[in-house]
Amino acid sequence: MTEPQELMQYIGENLKKYRLQKGMRQEELCDGLCSVSQLSKIENGKAQVKAEHLKIMAERLGVAVEQLRTTDALRDELREGIELTKKATVAQNYKQAFERIRSVVARAKQAGYQDLHAEAVLYECYLLNMTERKYQAALEKLRETLTDGGEFDPITRADLLIEYGRAYAFTGDLVEAFRQYLQADTLLQRVEPVAEDLYARVLYRIGDCMFYMQNWRTGYRYSDQSAKVAEALGKHQYRIRSKSMQAAFANKLGRPEEARKIMEELLQEAQSNNLIHEIGTLENNIGCWYMEQGDLTTAHQYLQRSMTSFELLNDRYVMCQPLMNLAEWAQKANHLEASLQYADQVLELVREGGLLGLHYLLEGRMLALHAKTYGLLGDEERMTAFYEQALELFDQNRAVIPAYDVCVLLADFYYERSNPRALPLYKQAVSYNRIIHELGVKK
Question: What is the rounded distance in angstroms from the CA atom of residue 113 to the CA atom of residue 119?
Fold first, then answer.
């Protein structure tokens, strides 16, 4: 980094630090000087500020101009602490990683560095989720940060809300998770787009949340924005992931040809750059696309390729994706025993443990697929038993959207056979639908 670039970085970081310490919004600091988006670029070290504007900003913040132009030794130390935490994580020295990041969390909060405080909290929650599966502890940490952590800028607060929602999802409360995602969505709608890493990441994460909520149109918008910001930043891999998500949303919106074109172009890019995870994901998604179009032969070819790609990563979670879709493919192809076997492989991976908290969605989906397969085999007893298991699992975790679908299916089945179980199931479906409606999803 050259000296002028370092100075831009110092000025930007100091402007943001003192603004947040003062509880001042960006609009207040830059009023009559520049746009909010320009101030965001300045605060992120991406643009220079005019000397006369810097003087006025310093006056508004109640500090000397020189304080804005000099490096902050403590801030540099805390930033280094985050980097050392990441290195300790890679080395699987989790004890040291926790000690370092918790020190950064406490010191950053005390010093009023809201951006570093938020970044450190998010990384501590990542460690709690990934290394110890302490989902409740992560939930408590995020609740405390959002309640007592001080004033965060809208993008950072949205990032924390998304992680807060994920924590709820991991602990088995998708309804509350969705409510946090909606709060993040409301915040981001008021943010003027800026070309920065955090903004691109938050857009991608909220798009992923919208997929779980089945809010296809909003998700398409976020994934499109994320791809554009990633391209502006030169983040090649991030752009591919964002465009891949956009293709999935386009397909859900009834634009299959747009989806196919995007995915095939991205697959060529991923192959050219040897991005194994992206290759496997795109092969899986293209396989699903062909399966929806009724071309089961081509679908099977792509899904098998996805399996081969993901085997190179030795990641059980990603292996679940093509296995689940192969189970569905086998069912559609009337290879019913093979469908049961594929689904059993997914259930085995899930029940072995080690997957993040959303494993109950995978397990529930496979139980429901088992039920449908047994129905096709004419075994109604096993069919209803598996549907009941899936419904119980979804209900326990407040996964109201899949719970509603299974509940209605079961209720219809019992009603056709004059079984009194139908009535309480219909009432249960109505209660799910009420919650779904509150979340803005139509059923």
Answer: 10
